[in-house]
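Propose amino acids for all 408 sites.
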């Protein structure tokens, strides 16, 4: 194994979750009699550049297929976040009808719809056919392809050199991180700005968010590592913010290295100091994470078995990738969790990969009245509790497993 950024071959252990199927590869009923492909889910940290990364066993097309079922617009709170981002960036960088905004990993148009509403020319790049089609239905122009230097140069030739690029929750999803980042350096105007949002590795460890590990996440990112990757590929980090999304994320602002109007803000030095003080340059920070994941798994399995012995019916909410990581690592099957509810029609009527728990609509929750509902996407727990508050009417309780088991 070689580091996908620097090519180094010396790694520190970080997390070994055994084997798992791709977390977003939901199963139709007609394929339940067929075998599934499971891949090792092993994550290590490069001792040279400190990029934490999966060991690769399959191509990106395996994980981001034409039937990819993650649609951003099914979370109302995430839509609010996207709208706020557009308002803030428009004001901060003076965007208008003469500007160009490009979003990489535009998904179903959850963000660019707000750019379009301001009459700012915008373009989305999205490799998955299912979400690209949903974005086009909103009137958004989409280039259906994976992003990198070659595509960036094609876009520039077409007149899409950008004043602003957005890349939310995608930097972790790319196998060739050097080509991906270098593409933004090609795509930006000389004084353009690129923003990247991604879950912060520091929070992943502090909050025991091991279930955010899955094959589609090729990298687990600190500012220490990101700054180095960017510098090697033509970008300079000039500002950084924290956001509460996905368990605690960073929003990094970057410019071309030759930009003259983007001085490095104090926030960058402060965050780098925070990471260093947390021990993120030291091996111990990474290799101690395994025990935390094992504790969550053991407590969760013990809890579900106890519920079964008590005759309690358990369901779950949110057919999320992180939930699939937890369920498959813990070996959970439909005997312990009867079904999982999800708002996304593309997932309803299918089965979770690995665990093969059926995905149903919310009517099933009301009719079955389970005693316990496990919230799998804990990052939107407040939204889900509000949406499903009626379960308390029949004595139902909510359960979360991460960062530690909690019933309420």
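Proposal:
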């Amino acid at each position: 194994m070689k580091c996908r950024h620097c090519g180094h071959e010396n790694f520190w252990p970080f997390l070994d979750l055994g084997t798992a199927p791709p977390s977003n590869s939901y199963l139709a009923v007609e394929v339940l009699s067929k075998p599934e492909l499971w891949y090792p889910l092993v994550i290590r940290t490069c001792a040279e550049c400190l990029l934490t990364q999966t060991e690769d066993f399959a191509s990106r097309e395996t994980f981001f297929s034409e039937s990819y079922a993650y649609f951003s617009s099914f979370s109302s709170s995430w839509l609010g976040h996207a709208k706020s981002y557009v308002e803030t960036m428009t004001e901060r960088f003076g965007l208008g009808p003469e500007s160009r905004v490009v979003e990489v990993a535009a998904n179903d148009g959850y963000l660019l719809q707000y750019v379009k509403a301001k009459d700012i020319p915008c373009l989305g790049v999205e490799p998955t056919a299912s979400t690209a089609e949903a974005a086009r239905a909103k009137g958004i122009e989409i280039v259906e392809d994976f992003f990198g230097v070659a595509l960036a140069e094609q876009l520039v030739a077409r007149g899409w050199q950008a004043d602003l690029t957005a890349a939310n929750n995608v930097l972790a999803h790319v196998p060739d991180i050097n080509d991906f980042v270098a593409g933004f350096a090609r795509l930006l105007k000389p004084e353009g700005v690129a923003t990247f949002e991604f879950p912060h590795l520091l929070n992943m460890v502090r909050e025991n968010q091991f279930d955010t590990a899955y094959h589609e996440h090729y990298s687990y990112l600190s500012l220490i590592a990101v700054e180095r990757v960017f510098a090697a590929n033509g970008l300079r980090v000039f500002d950084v913010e924290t956001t509460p999304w996905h368990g605690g994320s960073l929003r990094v602002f970057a410019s071309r290295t030759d930009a003259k109007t983007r001085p490095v803000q104090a926030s960058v030095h402060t965050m780098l100091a925070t990471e260093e003080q947390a021990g993120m340059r030291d091996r111990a920070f990474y290799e101690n994470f395994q025990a935390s994941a094992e504790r969550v798994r053991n407590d969760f399995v013990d809890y579900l078995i106890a519920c079964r012995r008590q005759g309690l019916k358990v369901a779950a909410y949110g057919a999320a990738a992180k939930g699939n990581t937890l369920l498959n690592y813990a070996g959970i099957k439909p005997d312990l969790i009867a079904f999982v509810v999800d708002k996304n029609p593309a997932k309803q009527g299918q089965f979770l990969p690995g665990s093969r728990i059926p995905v149903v609509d919310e009517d099933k929750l009301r009719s079955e009245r389970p005693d316990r509902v496990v919230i799998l996407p804990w990052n939107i727990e407040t939204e889900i509790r509000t949406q499903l508050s009626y379960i308390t009417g029949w004595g139902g309780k909510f359960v979360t497993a991460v960062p530690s088991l909690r019933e309420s």
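The mean pLDDT is 94. Residues 213 and 325 are 7 Å apart (CA to CA).
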